[in-house]
Amino acid sequence: MIEVKNVTKSFDDRTVLHNVSAKFFPGKTNLIIGQSGSGKTVLMKSLVGLLRPEEGQILFDGRDMMRMNISEQKELRKEIGMLFQGSALFDSETVLGNVMFPLRMFTEQSYDEMRARALFCLERVNLKGAEDKFPSEISGGMQKRVAIARAIALNPRYLFCDEPNSGLDPKTSILIDELLRDITREYNITTVINTHDMNSVLGIGENIVFINKGHREWVGCSAEVYTSTNETLNDFVFATRLFREVKEAHQLRAKN
Amino acid sequence: MIITDSLATFGRYCLFMKRVFTLPDRWGVTARRTVAEISKLGLDSIPLVIVISLFIGAVCAIQMQLNIMSPLIPAYTVGLATREIVLLEFSNSILCLILAGKVGSNIASEIGTMRVTEQIDALEIMGVNSANFLVLPKIVGFVAFMPVLGILSMTTALVGGYLVAVFTDIFTISRYVYGLQALFQEWYVWYGLIKSLVFAFIIVSTTAFFGYHVKGGALEVGKASTNGVVASSILILFFDVILTKLMLQ
Description:
The complex is a heterodimer.
Chain A: E1 2-11, E2 14-24, E3 29-33, H1 40-48, E4 55-60, E5 63-64, H2 70-77, E6 80-83, H3 95-106, H4 111-124, H5 140-152, E7 158-162, H6 170-187, E8 190-195, H7 198-204, E9 207-212, E10 215-220, H8 222-227, H9 231-237, H10 241-255
Parallel strand pairs in A: 3-8, 3-9, 6-7, 7-8
Antiparallel strand pairs in A: 1-2, 1-4, 4-5, 9-10
Chain B: H1 2-20, H2 27-42, H3 46-67, H4 77-116, H5 119-126, H6 130-167, H7 173-181, H8 186-212, H9 218-248
Helix pairs in contact in B: 1-6, 2-6, 3-4, 3-6, 4-6, 4-7, 4-8, 4-9, 6-7, 6-8, 8-9
């Protein structure tokens, strides 16, 4: 479990995160949602150690990341996988090379063992046969899946995903969401997904943390989103007519 | 303001170099990347070095002949002066200024693009020292290969002068070759090579620094590339003065 306790982060005079606390559970798809500029990306970057908050604690199964020395942080990072918004695949490597990269850097496996593991991960994300292609030769959705395969290559305990659905068509978005949910359950990973995709919120949100103007505004699961009386959350999640109709249908079904 | 900004940039450069010069996580991976960088930064520069050196050597020889036509000056001076120019300045300082454009912009844009597409963040999150992983092989590879480029440039430039003698009647081959051999000081070759090693380090480290610290998008990558080339060119000229003073006086 990852626990965030009273985290505050500022840039110059502007405080982006105000005393934020949240819990992210293993085996569940944990979502951080919020409007653009609400501070969710800053929270995500603080969680993975790319930014250092001024105050608070970030506990990875009780280990405080902010009190770790460099070698302890390095060890912790081997337990972390991350899926970036733009996939962040290495252009000069093939799909197989990208997935094998963390294995080459952090394991003592032979080439055949690394290749077998990488091929297994690629098969897990339904990308068998694409191993010799370069990132520029595959679609955005495939790039996301390669990035997921790379992220799970080292059997991480924690998986962070920054806007995994951005730039993808709805069908591919759902495939990515389902893949992340299945992998999370299968390997009991603590998965934290930063998103403002409402399909993801209502579809796979098992633990949702809503950030608004740098504050933690609301916490719950996707079923509770429908019944929440929090106006800011309702304005955000059900902003479009389609989702308002979805909510009405859901409430009607609940009544009947 | 300019002084404090420059000092702050120098401080960041020193911290960056401290991260670059740490022991690699995987020696095998670093060695393979170094070989790849030798190919990309060094071997791929050979055609440019040959073309430029050949023409500059030829132009130097012609200019010498045209500007020192006097019965008081021995005819072999053309070869001697061409050789001295090539060994002392062209095949290290001028060559490195040209390579700063080719190699430097390549490095800054490559690393800058990796920064803006979050590839460097991906390395950091994996626990890889990205500065060391990306920049050390480039520095080692290019600095190690620079003497090859330097010697190739010296040879080609002198051949350029020789070809002028072969294909024109501006001066004779025998006088040119005699001039090349006259009053030769071996130290000048070493001096040129030492300078080129320092300049190679400046080119890679400076442009990598600018690329690594890019913030923004494609526009900023372009700016960083330009700034890196300009800064490395100025530093090459600055260190040229210092090294010449230290090693020749």
